[in-house]
Amino acid sequence: MSIGVAQSQVFISGKLVDIDKNPISNVSVGYKRVNGTALVGFTRSAADGSFRLESKLTDADSIRLEFNHMSYAQHSVVVANIAASYTYTLTIQAKEIKEVKAANLPIFKRKDTVNYDVAAFTSTQDRVIADIIRKLPGVEMEGDRILYQGKPIQKYMVNNLDLMEGRYAMINKNLPADAVRKVQIVENDQPIKLLDSVVFSDQASLNLELKRFTSTGSGKVGIGATPALWDVNVTPMTFGQKFQMLNSFQSNNVGVDVAKDLRAFYTGATGAYFTNKDVNISDGPNYIGLRNVPSPGFEERKWLDNKIFLFSTNVLQKLRNDVEVKGNISYYDDTKVRRGFTATQIFTANETILNSEAVDNRYRINNLDLGATIEKNEKNIFLRNVLKYRKRWNTDLGLVLLNDDTPIRQQGAFTDEVFKNSLAMGRFVGKQLLNINSSLEWRTTPQRLQVMPGQFEDLLNNGDPFDRVQQLVQFEGLDWKNNVSFTRRWKKIRLSPILSFDYNRNHLQTDIELVEDGQNRLLGADFLNNMINSQVRLGADVGFGFETARWKFNLATPYSLFYYNVNQQGLQTLDNELRNTFNPRANATFMANAKHQFGASAGAGNQFGGLDNFYNGFIIGEYRNIQRYDARLLGSKVVHGAVNYNYKNTLKANFAHLQYGFDAAVRDYIYETQVDSLGRLRTSIANRESQNQQHSLSGGLSHFFASAKTVVKINGRTNWSVSDYLLNNVMARQKTFHYVADLEIMNNASSIIGGEYKTSIGQTVNTFAAGRSNRIFYNNHYLTLLIYPTELQTIQISNSYYHNNIEGQVDQFFMDATYRITLGKRKIDLELIAQNLLNNNEYVQQITTDYQLIRSSFELRPRQFILSTKFRF
Q1: In terms of Cα–Cα distance, which of 303, 307, 306 is closest to 840?
Q2: Are 170 and 261 in contact (CB under 8 A)?
Q3: What are the residues whose beta carbons fall under 8 Å from the beta carbon of 578, sequence distance 6 or more?
Q4: Which of 338, 481, 198, 202 has the alpha carbon at shortest distance from 857?
Q5: What are phi and psi of 441, to 5 degrees?
Q6: What is the distance between the alpha carbons of residues 591 and 599, in angstroms, rounded to a whole number?
């Protein structure tokens, strides 16, 4: 088969033969749209079996050819709608073949759906669908989060059902790749059917089309040394048309943080005017913490010292009336150990303060999540209610050796208990769409921090040393949000007025307790808080939309009226203080054709906030940081804008995207920091104007070389920013320039050897007060070689090379190896895994903040060996 170059006139030619290679004449050759029933054009084969057909479907990526003859079985194929020549063999009196793809296109597009053939991207070592998705052109994975053309996907479905509500890493890492026929990206997907013809969506969803509705899953049992290691994962799953279930039990101490599998990457109900998007629960305010050592920025398995037990069950049932009911329960118990060393330089206008800390921390985290969702999603009605409960409780222990001679012990406890319910309803009343949203969240978050010996002697105890200091915090919050909208569409124009009412109330109580000579003593008014703050928001917004085949334009004009109240220790600091904001924003999309899309967005306005900073009693955040704010309403003016470009050519497997963004803010306040000679920080808020600006530019290219079974991806991003800071009464400005570029090549053409290579190069330059600057440069390389001695054996050698410009730090090289043998038709894998063969024991890096340069060394996991068996259900 030879493929020609598409011209303005597309001629598809070929030859028809029988099984003995004899030409077949007088065969009716017709073509249709891929999903069409009407015959668009036809011809007949000549005496030598040849045919030539002109395609007039200029708007289609693919067409369907059909061959009919009285003496041969009917034959149907889908081919690319470009000039090409094919040879087909027809079978005498054979059973009718409903559909055969002559050219097995690895990527093709139908309407708004880009289809990736999983078989075209699968190599011998691939086991789960995540191994495939990360290779797909146009698709990227940032950790476990999936992006398409540089933007996060809004839904992850299996057979068009969304079981996990954004927690899709659990499926991605455990669904066997050989159970999936196609990965589909649905562009401009509007998941709320009620809005499908009303509100345009520029977001993409991902759907996995399985080979059959099936019960499947994967499992793993591994043991190892040194030290004693285990790695267990049993995750069965069922994906039917109306019922789906995923259960998982996982436990390991090999450096895999499986708790991340429960992270939600999107928020469920979407749509521009269904505004209860935030159905997931965020973390509560954390006022205290242990002094920590920064962790390395590479694969956790190399450095995470953990012990975790996790259980999760998730169920979806679709009822007869198209109502979906979902439920989930998950719990994990996680213990983490972090050890390392930090050397910190704090740059003030007059001096540089140095200190060092040897850190040995232990964290114990327990987390329970419960959820129930009911949803009815039809053309004429939308109903969705999400009920969630979460409780998280931590107990932490930290040991610090300060400047090689001062041992400090820290003990922390943190509990966050949350109940949340979110409701969205919509239906048409005549030709007008009515939508109502309401969400209610309540939380309580008690916390405690003990530091021994006591710190901040001058501030807390008249300069005298004491045995222990304890910070107590109790936080309670209530957040209630409501809105109602009316949407009406007239041909190309959409108008959507929205009315909102929100109420928020928080109660913060804190105390500081000293222990001296066995006696406990609570400090006075300067060291306690009893603050109640609340705000009421009345909002009005008129949304405007304009939509044609090529142009999509949206404008929002939200106006809000706020009433603020604050009571601190019985004193009414704010009494129905009135403020208003106006934050218009607009975006436009232009689709030049099926390959090129342009977009732009802009917004500006003013904001007020800072109610949580109205406390005037000191709070100890960690052993070397204490703060109080005694603030007022904080105001800022913001402006932002962005432009983007997307390109895709599915027939040639080319994808590209480019984005530029600008953000600027002018604030009527600044956070002020005082640093003492030991590097201890005291933070407050000053009434001085401050500014910050940031520019960002990012883009990517990807291509699949089908003949070589090779995927190439190039991604880059850069940003440069300027921000003000106030340190020891001196106003200064930090300038930052950062860039990073990645090249990734994945090849699986050979049945004997394959591999992957990635290189990442980046640089960060920070300029501080008095013209001092710091430059961090790195260039990392990753090479994985795959050798297949036989069809059932795999040897994998993974190499990582890390280079940076840190003075005195030698380049670091890591090597891991895996030997795998596959047994029987059930494809059970036996694996011997060797990690950190070179036994690297620490990793050194540099981190910068507004006024600090931190050089840290982090203790890595030792060399270890694991013997495991992996199986698929």
Answers
A1: 303
A2: yes
A3: 561, 562, 563, 564
A4: 338
A5: -135, 130
A6: 9
Chain-centre distance for alpha carbon 640? 22
Find tokens 């004009």 and name the residue: 557
pLDDT of residue 295: 87
Residue 446, token pair as written in the block: 């008690």
> How far apart (Å, rounded) are the C-alpha atoms in residues 838 and 863?
7
Phi and psi, residue 258, nearest 5°: -75, -10
Tell me what the mean pLDDT of segment 824-837 comes to: 87
The token duo for 760 is 């990442």
DSSP secondary structure, 498-538, as one string: EEEEEEEEEEEEEEEEEEETTEEEE--GGG-EEEEEEEEEE
Looking only at the bridges linking them, the beta strands covering 155-158 and 205-210 are parallel
Q: Which of 236, 146, 238 is nearest to 183 (CA)?
A: 146
What pTM value is reported for the model? 0.84
Looking at residue 100, its pLDDT comes to: 40
What does the DSSP 8-state code read for residue 273?
T
- 808's CB contacts (< 8 A; 6+ apart) are none
User: Is 439 in contact with 276 (CB distance < 8 Å)?
Assistant: yes
DSSP string across 704-769: EEGGGTEEEEEEEEEEEEEEEEEETTEEEEEEEEEEEEEEEEEE---SSEEEEEEEEEEEEEEE-G
Place of tokens 């190896």: 817
Tokens linked to 610: 């800072």
Beta-carbon count within 10 A of 7 CB: 9
Contact 517, 467 (CB under 8 A): yes
CB 367 within 8 A of CB 390: yes
Element (H, E) at 170: helix 169-172
Residue 721: C-alpha distances to residues 345, 671, 725, 767 (Å)? 22, 18, 13, 11
What would the two tokens of residue 643 be? Answer: 């432009």
- Name residues whose C-beta falls within 8 Å of residue 186's C-beta, 6 or more positions apart in sequence: 112, 113, 204, 205, 206, 207
pLDDT tens-digit map of 155-191: 999 999 999 999 999 999 999 999 999 999 999 898 8
CA distance 427 to 381: 4
Question: Which two structure tokens, joined as six digits, stand for 624?
Answer: 């070397």
pLDDT in tens, 606-663: 999 888 888 889 999 999 889 888 778 999 999 999 999 999 999 899 999 999 999 9
Instruction: Output the CA–CA distances (angstroms, integers) from residue 638 to 290, 602, 671, 678, in the order listed.
Output: 34, 11, 18, 37
The C-alpha atoms of residue 500 and residue 505 are separated, in whole angstroms, by: 17
Rounded to 5 degrees, φ, ψ at 808 are: 85, -5
Pair of tokens at residue 671: 């956070």
Per DSSP, 834 falls in state E
Tell me how far apart the terminal alpha carbons of the chain are, to the nearest angstrom: 39
Max distance between CA atoms of the chain, in angstroms, equals 109
Which is more confidently placed, 10 or 864? 864
DSSP bridge partners of 473: 447, 510
CB atoms within 10 A of CB 832: 15
State the Cα–Cα distance between residues 862 and 46, nearest whole angstrom.
72
d(CA 122, CA 105): 14
760 residue type, one letter:
S
Q: How far apart are CA 484 and CA 41, in angstroms?
A: 52
